[in-house]
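Issue: ligand-bound run for zinc ion - logging full I/O for the record.

Environment: standard queue, default settings, no custom constraints.

Inputs:
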Amino acid sequence: MYVAPRGTIDILPEDQPYWEFLRAKIAEVTALFDYRRIDVPIFEETPLYVRGVGEGTDIVDKEMYSFIDKGGRDITLRPEFTAGIVRAYVQHGMKTLPQPVKLYTLGPIFRYERVQAGRYRQHTQFDIECIGEQDPAVDLEVMSVAWELFSRIGFQGLNFQLNSTGCPKCRPNYLRVLVEYYRQHETEICADCRRRLERNPLRLLDCKVEGCQPIIEAAPHITDYLCEECAEHLALLRRYLDALDRPYTMNHRLVRGLDYYTKTVFEVWAQGIGAQNAVCGGGRYDGLAEELGGSPTPGIGFGSGMERLVLLMKEQGIQVPELPRPQVALVTIGQEAKVRALQLLNELRESGIRAVIGFGDRSLRAQLRSANRSQVAYAVILGEEELASGQVRIQDMRSDASPELIPQSDVVATLTRYLARG
Ligand SMILES: [Zn+2]
Ligand SMILES: [Zn+2]
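Outputs:
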């Protein structure tokens, strides 16, 4: 007996209303903000992610699904979207388009993660990228896409967590101070943090180990060490957020540990059961295009995991519209009646009525029971008697009234009229 691979899930029909709802909201909000869809391949050459996500990150060090294909190429299933989209921007010369280029995408990403609730090895991500402009108003706009989307989904208690991750000019100063501070606490921190201290000190602030928390809390803040340009960028963004009354908390733990991540880094948190939950994370990456062989091009974006959104929607009791169900069921007795019913079924569907028929050789009662279960409004009953008289019986499934006898030629018109009055 086979089961889905560890860390993957089937999204069954009963969960699809949530997904359809989310896709509809995404289409609505991206159109509102003028973001255009892009789809990039599910796999790329491995070096793109090694450079674009960065060595020293958990993604590249531990989580990539990489393999050598039959042509000997080193391939990786995409572990995130930004590298592929910036690659596409450079490859297709989007620099010549009006800037910024505003893109969004939606699809599966793959990470070999430790499996836990809401964390999967294949998960679906919604992602937007705004490439080619460094105005902090762009940061505000990207954050506003997230805000608008999560508001329209119906999440409560939304707020931003905000930080700056500096730039290659000012970050080294901060890193020196941070490393100096951590050296004084080297015996108190976890083994992972001792490694981070050597390899990627910014990631020290990411540590989830209990014993490291007080040390993170008391660590120096990068915002006290920003250069003039980075400080002004942050100050303007905060001014814009204030102007729109968007609640945000400066969170000095939010960092991205690589040189091409610059300035703004943010998350959106929503009220969950008990704790707050991050529903998206993003930031600016002004050095990435250059890292991937393009000319210097600023950019900012965010990604949001759809499975987590669905979990949180259920937790919060957010209601979503049902998907269309059949309206009419055809019920037949005998082979001749079935032939005629298949014609009627076809006519109903051609006129846009969602109709189904019972398959197999089941009794009238069994067919009616199944019509009832599928919650159709009307059953069209066709037996030998009706066949002979050129009629059908129409049963209103929501009432006890006896069926109504009508000519077969009137079935479509009659049901169209009945369904229209609800
Ligand atoms: Zn700076
Ligand atoms: Zn630690």
